[in-house]
């Protein structure tokens, strides 16, 4: 007998002996043995009360969603969580999995092998949500590869990961669809069925060999055959030591008996915890009999849901005697409840007598996986790039659109750019178009970037797969090559068609500034998209902001002529700095501009006078570039902080 087993058996004896007023409480030998095995983990919850936080300070009193409930999950068991809609199943499951919403307050104790639960639950548990979110446009095999890399990090070799994936694919029956796309944004081509998606979600959780797997209604929407397959997969998982807690609504009769244990919830209280046959027996003792031919699961749900119930005493039927409240009260006084209390006492006792072992266990649980920051970043970028590559239509459309605009602008200005007074106006016009084309389109396009990806990000962040910074930076970096290509194509076409200044420096500065403008605009669009809850609200605030950008572009008004209290505006805008930099590139060093037919006093004779006319100065070029780079980082930083705040509040 190992030291730990000894502690547990002593604890059981002591606990059972000391349970005053609980005669006859017996803890099954297999439960003791299971609790004692070294790698096994037992989860307990005691006097757990979960209450929603008031939405507004003046709002009325909030009723608890879960009210003073206790129970245990024994290692390697398949447990069904059942109860009517709104009973608190999801709430209990997310609390036990340490994935509770911040909008709830939690009182009571939840422990794994005596340790209060904490972020280590992400390392030892998996969670399958009711509404599974999976990335589109990538195949099953690619998704599993990506999740293996995110979950297991570099500590497991690529070869080992491949072998694991092959094994999991065959175990979950997904081999046939390994190369099928999960979903397709274009709606064309073969994608996974609902059942296959649920199996994929299950397969992903198998990668990290969790000690606990929490499945929120995984069989909902599946036909009885697929539901059975899924439950059988869960059952086989328990044989490897994983404890599976699965909320389920209406399992078929046979399927119900596949579960080792049932947790019945109603109105936030426990209706019963024990084997399915014990649950039926418990209700029978209260005169609640499942009619012949009636599905037991339906019967259980019916008695837990109804306010009045028909009970049977011999051949006599009476209505209204037993309701869910009475069932919960009877359960509290039952032997089944005492057995749970005894198992909880065992766990708590173990913590007090085996604090050294507990400490070692705690250390083992909290050990973080060997995940390199850049390795995670790389795989996230890989997924973004893969998704964009698989959705080329939108990208091609954007490129074609940009080229069309570039050709139009270039051709319109092709004869107008010259060293004359007419040319000055045309040049400043084309500069304004270059800057605004690289500002407004990308800024508005970026508005949908994060809202589209937010739900999946939130899930994966909650599962501790990566950080907000990794998600944000990978999203931006995966777009960067495409953004560079698009901007360079645009600017080169305009530059040569419109015959802008034929010097290498002029071209270089114009290209660099355009790329910076495009990136700052995207950064600003990202900031607005994460600052406001919806794309529509972000857009409504962005429109007035556009006016700040245009007014401060330096073309329409001299900044110094604006009221002093508005002279901060150019610093949140980038159009003036960009226009000034490109104007310097085009006009600096131009010695002579033709003045025919113009009154000499209003004629601009050289490049310096043109720059003066717009209050630009050749000395500002470096400052302009630095400000643009600064704005790029500031907008991205603010967007990242807003995103982190938003994800922590959800
Ligand atoms: N954030 C919240 N704020 C307030 N009430 C909440 C919140 N989340 C859940 N609830 C309430 O708690 C109760 C239990 O919700 P929960 O989702 O746990 O039920 P459930 O048993 O899983 O239901 P279903 O079977 O329909 O999924 C419901 O009445 C729900 O409205």
From TrEMBL:
<keyword id="KW-0812">Transmembrane</keyword>
<keyword id="KW-0067">ATP-binding</keyword>
<keyword id="KW-0547">Nucleotide-binding</keyword>
<keyword id="KW-0813">Transport</keyword>
<feature type="transmembrane region" description="Helical">
    <location>
        <begin position="538"/>
        <end position="556"/>
    </location>
</feature>
<dbReference type="GO" id="GO:0005524">
    <property type="term" value="F:ATP binding"/>
</dbReference>
<dbReference type="InterPro" id="IPR003593">
    <property type="entry name" value="AAA+_ATPase"/>
</dbReference>
<dbReference type="InterPro" id="IPR013525">
    <property type="entry name" value="ABC2_TM"/>
</dbReference>
<keyword id="KW-0472">Membrane</keyword>
<protein>
    <submittedName>
        <fullName>AGAP001333-PA</fullName>
    </submittedName>
</protein>
<dbReference type="Pfam" id="PF00005">
    <property type="entry name" value="ABC_tran"/>
</dbReference>
<feature type="domain" description="ABC transporter">
    <location>
        <begin position="43"/>
        <end position="292"/>
    </location>
</feature>
<dbReference type="GO" id="GO:0140359">
    <property type="term" value="F:ABC-type transporter activity"/>
</dbReference>
<dbReference type="GO" id="GO:0016887">
    <property type="term" value="F:ATP hydrolysis activity"/>
</dbReference>
<dbReference type="InterPro" id="IPR017871">
    <property type="entry name" value="ABC_transporter-like_CS"/>
</dbReference>
<dbReference type="InterPro" id="IPR027417">
    <property type="entry name" value="P-loop_NTPase"/>
</dbReference>
<feature type="transmembrane region" description="Helical">
    <location>
        <begin position="429"/>
        <end position="451"/>
    </location>
</feature>
<dbReference type="InterPro" id="IPR050352">
    <property type="entry name" value="ABCG_transporters"/>
</dbReference>
<dbReference type="GO" id="GO:0042626">
    <property type="term" value="F:ATPase-coupled transmembrane transporter activity"/>
</dbReference>
<keyword id="KW-1133">Transmembrane helix</keyword>
<dbReference type="InterPro" id="IPR003439">
    <property type="entry name" value="ABC_transporter-like_ATP-bd"/>
</dbReference>
<feature type="transmembrane region" description="Helical">
    <location>
        <begin position="471"/>
        <end position="497"/>
    </location>
</feature>
<dbReference type="Pfam" id="PF01061">
    <property type="entry name" value="ABC2_membrane"/>
</dbReference>
<feature type="transmembrane region" description="Helical">
    <location>
        <begin position="504"/>
        <end position="532"/>
    </location>
</feature>
<dbReference type="GO" id="GO:0005886">
    <property type="term" value="C:plasma membrane"/>
</dbReference>
<feature type="transmembrane region" description="Helical">
    <location>
        <begin position="625"/>
        <end position="644"/>
    </location>
</feature>
<dbReference type="GO" id="GO:0030659">
    <property type="term" value="C:cytoplasmic vesicle membrane"/>
</dbReference>
<comment type="similarity">
    <text>Belongs to the ABC transporter superfamily. ABCG family. Eye pigment precursor importer (TC 3.A.1.204) subfamily.</text>
</comment>
<dbReference type="GO" id="GO:0055085">
    <property type="term" value="P:transmembrane transport"/>
</dbReference>
